[in-house]
């Protein structure tokens, strides 16, 4: 479904549900092709609007605690982000800039049947919205703004309905001079923004205070801040390519994405882990023989006891290393509501060590996995062992077959997300995002429950 059809279906559904929506800023002639649409509805129609869009599969991204005057809905289709912002007040940057009663009184119908505000309300909204949320006036508004300011009736109407006292003189300057030049000057716009925000600072004080308190007190204890997605699987199955493609596609949509290596071997950041690597600690069984790049010969009883000690040090050292990586590489970005893509996870250790099976201490490994930070989504990449062998010939085919089988069993046991890498990587990633974008978007937007639409 292309973007225009997606928006058209949603807006028609709102009409059928009795929701009277008004296009706020965009031109009624071509607004269906925009990435984001802003519409205004009356407060008493809020519940019906929410129910209608949710029933069509749109995801609610609204944060009721911080912005009670608006709601945001999103839908990702074919890798494209589509957004509908629903306003219950004419608000920009958290500031109510236009009186809602005046805005509603001037609603009219355009020649193509779309409800739009009066030219006066539109002009005031566009100017204040640009000043509070943009750097300069978008070029698509130039002609319409210039025409509105040339009309004395519109200018007088706007001047009589400005509810921000500090904006009166600035509006007079815009109507008397070259408004397009002024609104295209980022320094002038920034200066006016500072004045407007200073006037409204007391109105915004409680909201900002709540945000800061939530950040300091509640944020570290909530489970809805950001999201981690881990990608695990047999060496050679295509994890690096998958993570790189997912990072690119998520960024193209508009998400902030970071990556972190979280595997139970290599790339240590904790001093004890490097020390264990120096002494050759690993979890392999003593009777392991040559199998791929890793081998362990039989040893004497004394060496076996030393091996036992190094093995347990390895398990607990790896657990500490995983926590250290989480605190350093993952948590800071999660607190900022970002997406963190994990290259491997502690669960890899339940299937073996670098594709080599491990028989010892399964319960210990399972217990450590339970008390290790676990991503919200864990993807297990699988493919035909023969295909993997072509990419990673340093492992014997039977070793790869066993590793694939153990990863499949792991996914079944823990309910992990299996993806078969038998298609182009970009197709696999696009399909995954299409299936999971709602939970991803809810996590990065801070929405962890249904909106209170009663």
TrEMBL record:
By its UniProt entry, which SUPFAM superfamilies does this protein fall under? P-loop containing nucleoside triphosphate hydrolases
Q: Record's Gene3D superfamilies?
A: P-loop containing nucleotide triphosphate hydrolases
Q: Which InterPro entries match?
A: P-loop_NTPase
Q: What is this protein called?
A: Thymidylate kinase
Q: Which species does the entry assign this protein to?
A: Candidatus Accumulibacter vicinus
């Amino acid at each position: 479904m292309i973007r225009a059809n997606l928006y058209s279906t949603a807006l028609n559904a709102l009409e059928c549900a009795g929701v009277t929506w008004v296009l706020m800023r965009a031109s009624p002639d071509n607004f269906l092709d925009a990435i984001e649409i802003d519409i205004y509805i009356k407060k008493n129609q809020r519940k019906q609007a929410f129910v209608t869009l949710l029933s069509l599969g749109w995801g609610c991204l609204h944060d009721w605690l911080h912005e009670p005057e608006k709601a945001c809905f999103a839908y990702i289709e074919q890798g494209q982000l589509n957004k509908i912002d629903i306003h219950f007040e004419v608000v920009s940057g958290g500031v109510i800039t236009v009186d809602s009663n005046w805005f509603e009184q001037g609603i009219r119908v355009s020649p193509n049947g779309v409800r739009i505000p009066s030219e006066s309300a539109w002009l005031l909204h566009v100017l204040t919205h640009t000043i509070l949320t943009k750097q300069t006036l978008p070029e698509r508004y130039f002609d319409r703004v210039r025409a509105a300011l040339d009309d004395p009736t519109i200018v007088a109407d706007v001047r009589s309905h400005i509810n921000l006292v500090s904006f009166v003189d600035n509006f007079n300057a815009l109507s008397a001079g070259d408004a397009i030049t002024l609104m295209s000057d980022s320094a002038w716009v920034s200066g006016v923004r500072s004045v407007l925000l200073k006037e409204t600072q007391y109105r915004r004080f409680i909201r900002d205070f709540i945000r800061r308190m939530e950040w300091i007190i509640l944020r570290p204890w909530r489970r809805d801040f950001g999201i981690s997605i881990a990608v695990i699987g047999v060496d050679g199955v295509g994890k690096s390519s998958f993570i790189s493609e997912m990072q690119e596609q998520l960024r193209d949509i508009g998400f902030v994405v970071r990556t972190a290596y979280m595997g139970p071997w290599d790339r240590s950041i904790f001093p004890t882990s490097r020390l264990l690597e120096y002494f050759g600690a690993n979890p392999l069984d003593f009777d392991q023989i040559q199998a791929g790049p890793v081998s362990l010969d039989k040893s004497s009883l004394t060496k076996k006891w030393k091996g036992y000690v190094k093995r347990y040090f390895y398990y607990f050292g790896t657990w500490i290393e995983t926590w250290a990586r989480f605190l350093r590489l993952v948590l800071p970005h999660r607190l900022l509501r970002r997406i963190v893509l994990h290259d491997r996870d502690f669960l890899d250790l339940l299937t073996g060590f670098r594709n080599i099976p491990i028989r010892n201490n399964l319960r210990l490994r399972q217990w450590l996995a339970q008390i290790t930070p676990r991503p919200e989504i864990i993807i297990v990449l699988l493919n035909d062992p023969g295909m993997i062998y072509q990419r990673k010939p340093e492992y014997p085919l039977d070793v790869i077959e066993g590793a694939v089988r153990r990863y499949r069993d792991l996914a079944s046991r823990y309910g992990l997300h299996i993806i078969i890498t038998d298609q182009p990587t970009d197709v696999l990633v696009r399909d995954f995002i299409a299936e999971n974008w709602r939970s991803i978007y809810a996590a990065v937007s801070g929405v962890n429950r249904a909106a209170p639409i009663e």
